[in-house]
Amino acid sequence: MKRHIILVGLPGSGKSTVGKEAADQLQATFLDIDAVISRKEGRPISILIAEKGEAAFRALEKHEVEAALEAPPAIIAPGGGWAAQPGALESVAGRAIILYLKTKPDKAVDRAAQDRGPGNRATLIGIGDDPATRMRELLKEREPFYLKADAQVETDRKTAAQVVVEVLKLARSMAGW
Q: Is the pLDDT of residue 120 over 50?
């Protein structure tokens, strides 16, 4: 039975880039949860959080992940903090496999700074004067949850295409694709 694939990891770990390409190759739907929320709310995630607060954003994120899980199997990329929310990982058990795209904080900062996608991740994660320090803090907070994933894919010394190949292998061997 085919199951959803949820990609977790720091902002800049490649969830959107890898997820989109893996979905294309699997002929599956790709859902970037930040993009879904941004489109429905009519504004970037950073502005949404500034206006409504992070708790309201996380509630929307949880709702959209649940809605995605009710649809046919897809590749799903929630925000970097989704996995650290109470009950998030447990709520997908049996319906999805979770893959941790493991990236060192410095590499994630470089990638996140180049991202101009929905929500402007540099703003979203609160990068200020010292983005590397902030990313290390995020990793310290979130990695205990990321490590509960069904599998890890190291991304630092690989191209996006190489990471996609690994994700495809795991999708086929663990999620019935």
A: no
Q: Do the Cβ atoms of 73 and 94 come closer than 8 Å?
A: no
- Whole-model pTM over 0.85: yes
Number of folded domains that form the chain: 1
Host domain of residue 62:
4-171
Answer whether residue 121 shows pLDDT above 80: no
The enclosing H or E element of 97 equals: strand 96-102
Instruction: Name every residue whose Cβ is closer than 8 Å to that of residue 9 and which is 6 or more positions away in sequence.
Output: 15, 80, 100, 101, 102, 103, 108, 146, 155
pLDDT tier for residue 129 given thresholds of 50, 70 and 90: low
Measured in whole angstroms, how far is the alpha carbon of residue 120 from the centre of its chain?
Answer: 14
